């Protein structure tokens, strides 16, 4: 696929974010972001780079120790974390299998050799292109989710996508607000059977924690990619 969105425009778009000081070291191959070095106001230099098989150990640590249980349940994208991997070797096998496919891109946010964020864009060649992001628990509220989601938006531009979707539990207000800030709009409420397991788990958490039950549903939000 020809790349129409230039790397200099990618640099300009990311440097326009209020959390970003500067961007360098951009590497893009065949429309896929391979690496970007980003200086942030909150935590200094981070690297956004493509997931590789040798990341399995640090990614397993990110998923199994870096995310609260609720975050793990809400971020379970096929093929990496659905069902949850039981070991580094199992996760490495899933990454290898994913590498064979040609319609996925997964980007790590890395700080001091530790994965602190993960974003993905999947099913490029269908009408239902979807995305998802997760930030390590001890790096929340630092603007990293906003940076990562904007990287995913720029990745969509590089692939000449017109739009993509995200699915969010309705009471996850911080995620809804983040995506609205990034230009997503709500499109529909998804039928309960599709995400019945997740909704049941969240209801069980309410009971376990002594909270009142919440009437939740799954919201689909769409990002129309702007090429102006």
Plain-language structure description:
The chain is of the alpha+beta class and 228 residues long. It has helices at 7-15, 56-65, 69-74, 88-100, 144-158, 173-181, 196-208; strands at residues 20-29, 32-40, 44-50, 104-111, 114-122, 130-135, 163-169, 184-190, 218-224. The strands form 2 sheets. The chain has a 6-stranded antiparallel beta sheet, with helices on both faces. A hairpin with a 7-residue loop joins strand 5 and strand 6 (130-135). Helix 2 crosses helix 4.
Brief digest:
This protein has 7 helices and 9 strands.
Blueprint (SSEs and pairs):
Elements: H1 7-15, E1 20-29, E2 32-40, E3 44-50, H2 56-65, H3 69-74, H4 88-100, E4 104-111, E5 114-122, E6 130-135, H5 144-158, E7 163-169, H6 173-181, E8 184-190, H7 196-208, E9 218-224
Antiparallel strand pairs: 1-2, 2-3, 3-4, 4-5, 5-6, 7-9, 8-9
Q: Considering DSSP H and I runs of 4 or more, what fraction of the residues is helical?
A: 25-40%
The total count of helices amounts to: 7
* Largest beta-sheet details: 6 strands, antiparallel
Uncertain ranges: none
- Give the strand order of the largest sheet, numbering strands 1, 2, ... along the chain: 1-2-3-4-5-6
Kindly, what is the distance between the CA atoms of the first and last residues, rounded to a whole number of angstroms? 20 Å
Mean pLDDT: 88
Q: What structural class results from the helix and strand content?
A: alpha+beta
Shape: globular
**How much of the sequence is in beta strands?**
25-35%
